[in-house]
Amino acid sequence: MFKKLFFLTMIVSSFMLSAFAVILLFTYLLGPPDTNLHQQTQFFDRDENLLETQALVNQREYIAIEEISPHVKNAFTAAEDQHFYDHYGFDLKRIGGAVYQNVIHQDKRQGASTITQQYAKNLYFTNEKTWTRKFKEALAAMRLEMFLTKDEILEGYLNTIYFGHGQYGVEAASQYFFDKSARDLAVDEAALLAGIPKGPAIYSPLNDYERSHERQQWILRRMASLDFIDQQTYNAVKNRDVPIVTAVANESNSDSLYFMDTAMKQAAELLDISREELKHGGYNVYTTMDVEAQEHLSETVKENLPEGELQVGTVTINHQSGEIVALQGGRDYKKSPFNRVTQASRMTGSTFKPILYYAALLYGFTPAMTLESAETTFQLENGKTYKPTNYGDLYANGPITLAQALAISDNIYAVKTNQFITSDNLIEAARTFGIEDDLPSVPSLALGSGSTSVMNMAEAYGLLANGGASIDPYIVKKITNEDGEVLYEHPSQPSERVLDRDYAFVLTHLLTGIFDERLNSYSRVTGATIAPMLTHHYAGKSGTTPNDSWMIGYSPHYTTAVWTGYDDHQQIEKREDLVAAKQIWAEYMEKIHENKPVQPFEVPDGVTGAYIDPDTGYLQGPACEDRTRLMYFIKGTVPKNVCTE
């Protein structure tokens, strides 16, 4: 019996030794491991200047082992792997203890990873706690030990560990927490830093200083017991507070991070990889950001967005090229990365009316067409009634022209127009403008009761700004790998005709009316308060709902949409909240047009201009010479009546 047992033991032992030898040989034949992974992806603006992205893309700054303070090396060795220089990648005693504890508790609560294993995980694997991942990690650790020196492994480890707050590596973390290089860290600073990677959310001094201090003290005691520091040094530092330099001031401007986040998302989708793979894949992403425009946008929002919880979503598109030149999806990315330009769906209010009136022009309406503006109760097909109101319950109580109705945002005129063209046809018009959201087929749709994103509305207005030619808003121009090989380049595609150019221009000129007080009626034009600020040619439309405030408009150069409101959909009641969207739009558009020529909208051949009395819709005559305005009509539709009384 004993011989059989001995023989069986020898066979099993031989098999295990052979298997281990095969694994060693296989590992060796794989050759030196690739440690040049997780390089930080870089982002560039439209002029291919490098953008600062440390607050969004995890920051890494590499530092050679000989430059790192010995206190740092000793602190991490004491905290993570005291036998680092004595083992070959695995601490068998720690592994045995960890396996015992894990079997007892039926989970994987206790780890025994050496610095080598942790470095392997940082390079190649995720935090998934499975035996398969552990086995692969062990093979990777063996390769590291075979082909790298201990100092090379420690250098790689110290440059890849995560410290929270987007900081990878001791140099980035040292700069972040202490505003100094890792080469200059004192022993107590090194011990505090060494305590963080065990759980950055728990042991970061910025998250919980007390817990961070407790772990630092534990590491200092271990350093003393291992003779990494003498007793005198330990006594001198054990109760000393370590001042933390909050590095928020050194982070990128959070206002531009919405743009960068959007670019990152689009780049990952284009390469069909995850955001994490993109972040640390060593790619070069060339974006469409106009840095000056982005800075102007951030600064204008700060100056005009009232204090409090009011949020903002705003984007600027070069409608001729489709480039998104500036974007801000909220008031503070660090507090809320939710992007209100691309992710939020909000009621559009009267900014939806241009779509309505484009359809109306196709159905035969003209800028001079009159409808009565008065309190009206509409009888619906289902037997119900609908009674819209104008802002402030004001009405002309008489006829007004389409030009006036759009400029002062008359709701009665809009609903009557919608009744004429039908809600289904209005929805079809919205589809033509690129709005695919689920829109209600009801009379109130004419007043913007449907919801969509700020980006969709900007694209819809950009279509008008581009003379009805299609636009394809994009934020990533090109992506290359670290060797410069082009992996993606935005295709140059000719625009397609989406809207009739002549009708698009007639509507564009109508939209310039919100800034022209010659179109005042029972109410002032909606852009009257910002008109004195404007020195260029603009077309646009404001819009409000109880919970939303909009201003969207364009010049021959740029289209900008601004939305303000509350995330919880509470009503906007304060005057400063109500006017913020218009104020931001006007000031910002003037800033980005400062060095642009004053350029009017190009008049196509299929339209003709005539001076019209805005009140009656008649051609200029002896009775209205002092109040006429130039309006444009599809050829053959200019009014024939002349105002003689």
Automatic annotation (TrEMBL):
Which reaction is catalysed here? Answer: [GlcNAc-(1->4)-Mur2Ac(oyl-L-Ala-gamma-D-Glu-L-Lys-D-Ala-D-Ala)](n)-di-trans,octa-cis-undecaprenyl diphosphate + beta-D-GlcNAc-(1->4)-Mur2Ac(oyl-L-Ala-gamma-D-Glu-L-Lys-D-Ala-D-Ala)-di-trans,octa-cis-undecaprenyl diphosphate = [GlcNAc-(1->4)-Mur2Ac(oyl-L-Ala-gamma-D-Glu-L-Lys-D-Ala-D-Ala)](n+1)-di-trans,octa-cis-undecaprenyl diphosphate + di-trans,octa-cis-undecaprenyl diphosphate + H(+)
Query: Which keywords does this chain's UniProt record carry?
Result: Cell membrane, Cell shape, Cell wall biogenesis/degradation, Glycosyltransferase, Membrane, Peptidoglycan synthesis, Transferase, Transmembrane, Transmembrane helix
Which Pfam family, giving just one, matches this sequence? Transpeptidase
Task: Give the residue spans that cross the bilayer.
Answer: 7-30
Q: Ranges for the Glycosyl transferase family domain?
A: 56-223
Q: Which residues form the Penicillin-binding protein transpeptidase domain?
A: 314-590
Where located? Answer: Membrane
The UniProt record lists the EC number as 2.4.99.28
Task: State what protein this is by name.
Answer: peptidoglycan glycosyltransferase
Q: What is the lineage of its organism?
A: Bacteria, Bacillati, Bacillota, Bacilli, Bacillales
